[in-house]
Amino acid sequence: MTQQRKVILEELRKVDSHPSADEIYEIVRHRLPRISLGTVYRNLEVLSELGEIQKLGLSGSLKRFDWDTTKHYHIRCVRCNRVADAPIAPLNQLENELYGATVFEIIGHNLEFTGLCPKCSAEALPDNG
């Protein structure tokens, strides 16, 4: 684990916002001012390949990164693209139901919920004042 990779991982573990590579770059630059955006991108890919982080390919938004590599779901705001963890257990029964019902070998699934985050929901309400 290189020093740059270690700092990227440490900083990613401090946030729960599922940041994009550009956002991680801005965070990491406070500790490593000379790091380049390309270096951050490369190290995020390596960390993802090593299973240290998750790369989230959510619909309608940039690739985002999550330090939590356990199986879990996400909720994405359709207005501001904020991403949060969905507070439910993985639905393993979905995969079990597919066994025997398809010729595909099931190796996992991704589930994304969409909606409005609290901030965007409040902004969308009409002003009754």
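The record above closes out task 2.4. Task 2.5 opens with a second protein, given below.
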Amino acid sequence: MHRHRIAAFLVGCLILGSLFMIFVATQNFATVDRVLAAPPQQAAQILEKLGPSDSRLLLRYLAGEENRFFFTNWELAQIAFGVLLTAILWLAISSPISAGISGVVLIIALFQHFRVTPEMIALGRLVDFGGEAGSAAYNQFWRLHGLYGVLEVAKLVLLLIVAGILLFGHKAKTAEAIPLESTIADQA
């Protein structure tokens, strides 16, 4: 029973963490607009010296750096959680379907971390300072950004499937394990 709870906890961590990262990524860039629209007095003086264009550029670069840091580290956490979850599902719970789905989530996280994210980070830094719309770097960055988003949605869907299997598949097995005759005999 504890194995199922641990697996469900890990799935919950992965789902909640992914949803939180979506929130963080969008809010980091939205904060730039909020700060520029109504900066605190001390910041307003600095922003005036930089000028509106450079202020926006610098703050968007900072938001991008924060996102790059958060996503790189979240991917490492996903890999650790994914290895642990897959091992529990395969070895402790003996659920090959859930373990297989969890393994696919792990493979996606590995692909993102070692293939997509490094290139997206490099291109993002190029685009942050002077990447013209329509340039090859700009277009490639947005293609990778789109791919990353699709992979995130795929991981969430797969994790929801694993959560469903853990929640509903486990209860069905537990109910089947208690024969009705023995329950009636025990009461007599």
